[in-house]
Amino acid sequence: MFRGSLAAVLLATCGVGCIGEIGDKGTDGGGAGSSTPEFAASPATLHRLTQPQLTNAWLDLLGEPLDLTTTLPVDDVAYGFSSIAAAQKTISPLEAEQYETATYAVLASVWSDIARRDALVGCTFSAVAEPCVATFLEDFTMRAWRRPLVAGELESLVELGSSVGSNLADPVEGLKFALAAVLQSPHFLFRVELGEPAPEHPGVLRYTSYEMASRLSFLLLEAPPDEALRDAAAAGELTDIDSIRSHAERLMAEPGARTSMTRFFRDFMNIRNLDQLDKNPDLFPQLTATLGPAMRSEMEKMFESVVFDGPGDFRSLFTTDKTFVNEELAGLYGIEGITGEELVPVTLPASAKRAGILTAAGFLALNAHQTQTSPTHRGRFVRINLLCQDVPPPPPGVSTTLPAVDPDAPPKTLRQRLDAHVAAAECKSCHLAMDPIGFAFEHYDALGQYREIDENGLTLDASTDIDGVAVDGGLQMGQLIADLPEVGACVARRFYEHAGAHLATSGEQPSVEGLIEDFVASDYDFQSLVVALVTNDGYRYALPAVSDDPAFSDEEAGQ
Amino acid sequence: MSARKRIFSSAGLQGANSGRRLFMRGLAGGIATMVGLPLFDFMLDDKGEAFADGEAVPNRFGIWFFGNGVHLPTWTPATVGPSWTVPDDFALAALLPHKEYVSVVSGLSVKTPRHAHHSGMVTVNSGGPHYKVDDVRDTIVSTFKYPSIDQVAAAHLMTVDPTPYKSLEVAVTRFRGTDEGTTFQYLSHNGSVAGESNVNPSEESPHAFFDRLFNQGTAEPLVRSARAHVLDAVKDQVSTLKPRLGAKDQQRLEQHLTSISELEARLKAPLADCSKPGDPGEFPDVESNEQIVEKNAVMSDLMVLALACGLTRSFSIMYSTCGSGAVFWMVGATDGQHYMNHTEPAPHDKQRDAVKFNMSQLAVFLDKMKNTAEGANNLLHNSSVYVSTEHTEGWTHSQDDLPMLICGKGGGRLRGNVHHRDDGGNSSKALLTALRGAGLPLSEFGHEEGLVGEGLSDLEA
Hints:
- The structure holds two protein chains of two kinds.
- Helix content of chain A is 48%, strand content 5%.
- By secondary structure, chain A is mainly alpha-helical.
- The longest helix of chain A is centred in the first third of the chain and has 19 residues, at 93-111.
- The N and C termini of chain A lie far apart (61 Å).
- Mean pLDDT of chain A is 89; it is low at 1-34 and 552-559.
- Chain B is an alpha/beta fold.
- Helices cover 31% and strands 15% of the residues of chain B.
- Chain B has helices at 3-9, 11-14, 118-126, 149-160, 206-214, 221-241, 247-268, 292-309, 337-343, 349-370, 428-437; strands at residues 21-28, 31-38, 60-65, 81-82, 102-106, 130-136, 139-144, 168-171, 314-318, 373-374, 377-378, 383-388, 404-407, 418-421.
- Chain B has an eight-stranded mixed beta sheet, with helices on both faces.
- In chain B, helix 8 (292-309) runs parallel beside helix 10 (349-370).
- At the A-B interface, helix 4, helix 7 and helix 8 of A face strand 6, helix 5, helix 6, helix 7 and helix 9 of B.
């Protein structure tokens, strides 16, 4: 339907210095004209467990039910992803306190129930140093820390438990405090991945089999490794690509994979903010506390349905007429016959004038202001988040205030007022890259409701011309975006960055490009992207974090 | 033996239900501990400004931040010098009832390398440049290179007279998800050596903040000692792991160690005995409107209680974030404040009204401090509270003629009620003065281009 070369056309629209080349990471210097650098892995880093990962790890170790009511550290977002923020944050005094409080709360859930506690430990005992307790403690700690213990670690924990148990004159309590030390340990609260020398790549580290078990499991399921992964780790199998692939395929069939991948999509589309949607209550009285979260759920279910139950082709997310609505959302879409709070699958009728995530209310409402739409924000989101292109901020010193509405002049649509962007030379180049994309969505108001006329009663024009390509309305824009190769490349890049929890460096460009090729070869099948990612060199190798890494000492000594 | 120590040893007074407590250092088993003590008037000298044994009443230091600058034509008092005043339609009119405790600083500039919002936020709160973590997409990502001044004061005040919490942090309006680094999300920072995000997160939930301060779990010394024992073991694990990591991760674990040590010290001291207020609960939006007045009142109450009881001496209140998108609906604003600044045509009446409203909310906090008696004076008298915003006016992103206030009398160190103007002066001068107001013996303050060797001496008594 549309020309395949549109991406190039889109780029040509903007002036010098406006939009970076695809894949250009600015400071990394891997821009147009430079040849692809050699693969250079990124340094290993500590990954702090996010809230769902932490909760799943506790449940895995202690079983259900647990007291999960205490306040946990907030999952911040960096570069769009909570995974990246989790690789940057320290543990503040407040958060250390929150971890401590939460640890004793979950332990109390078990310790307050004698039968449950004894079943967990596997024996009754009168001293922490008894063999059966030490065996339990070792097994528990190995699972919590996701690796075998090194010399002295178990002994320290036994000693701690014995000492506290004797102070409290209660060995059973002593064991509880030993477990509290396991669960507040950096080896539990962080994924500690240090790597080991890779025989196949001198000077480079590969993640160990145990570390790969954690990387796979927390990425795919937001949970610690299951028994099969633990066994594979113990057998040293997870440095082998075929083994990694088969485990990844197995995990992708687990229910947890849906939750985990949906959370990637939530970050990718920035739709977590729908849970606290701000709109002007006078103009949008239909916005309730539940409508924003329903909009988020709709988009997430569309993703889950396409990826796990449907065609698998990520591009179909931009064109699908299959969606999910509850009564409130159905009301917004003008679909009759839906009742209740639960979202149910529907096929959108033509009269809804919607298809795909770009005409879902969540995208439209989030990328709009409290009172009116924002073609600029909607266009900007498409450029930055879906095409991975850079749009610089307004030049310093430029007033970004649109000219005031002249009360005596005939009213103008927002689109007409936005013409000021392209009238000013310093605004033109970037706004021409954003606003025309957004104009296609002008039939959807700031809450995402379809409309023919705007708030002033003026007829809306959603036809837009993107350098010779005529697009009229959101449906055609969705089709256009679906056909752009940049979208698939951008999703692959962002998934790579989410998985590795850092922005891809120029040295990782070959890995990213390889991943994109795999994604294209799979016809943009998202599950295939996940499997391609975990077998990608960029995900399996790392650079030594410290120059005198002891892991290399033997190697150096041998040279 | 001083009056304070006699009180401490008198078991009959240990349970005295006073909302006013201070903490003193004791020595138990060779470990510095903190002990909650009621501050009774007879322990003070005739002026109520020092303990009878001559020790000054310890100061409090805090920062109160509001985002997006002001509306300059209705901000700055017309005359400089003592006894400032403003017309009723100015934002600072809300502070006139407290003006004996409030000095206005105008004219100062950010001298560090500038970037819209980022440099203003970081420099007015830390005295140093922002740490650019990355150029990304359409903006930059940054954090604080140096600690915010609440942490500078906290480090000093903990050496003078330790409190259970080194500092406390709250937010009033909520963060709306700007992805530009911690500069846009948090106020209190510990400084970043290698780009790590090293913040003291502000608590946004009144219930959670209440729960943290006033439901501290068991007072059973053996159990608290066991918990401290556990943390000691965790510290060993952190210390063993740290050298195996890269520079950034080493910094992250260094902060982890610091955080654990703070918690451990608290567990080794007896449980703070503060009079417990009712649980304030939460304040969800009502018809999409954030309940700012209600939340500000209760967060101010809790912070004042924590300060009066001696739970901490250093605090930060992030009333709104740098570049805040809070909707000040009560003045008729229909858009987030940042967007409104960029879209509202001159003369920017809604921004004017929003700033005036924000100062009325600061007045609520100052009023609560002033109404908390402490000896012959009050909590505000014994505090130095630094108030700032990252821009002069949001729509120009200007960082000259910065709006700043220094509130409180610093226990007599600050004069109050002065308007000081210093056109083009380094913004760190105000930070230095505010810190000196809390008793920090500083003759210079700031970092790199933000370093200054003199404060605003006419604000000091």
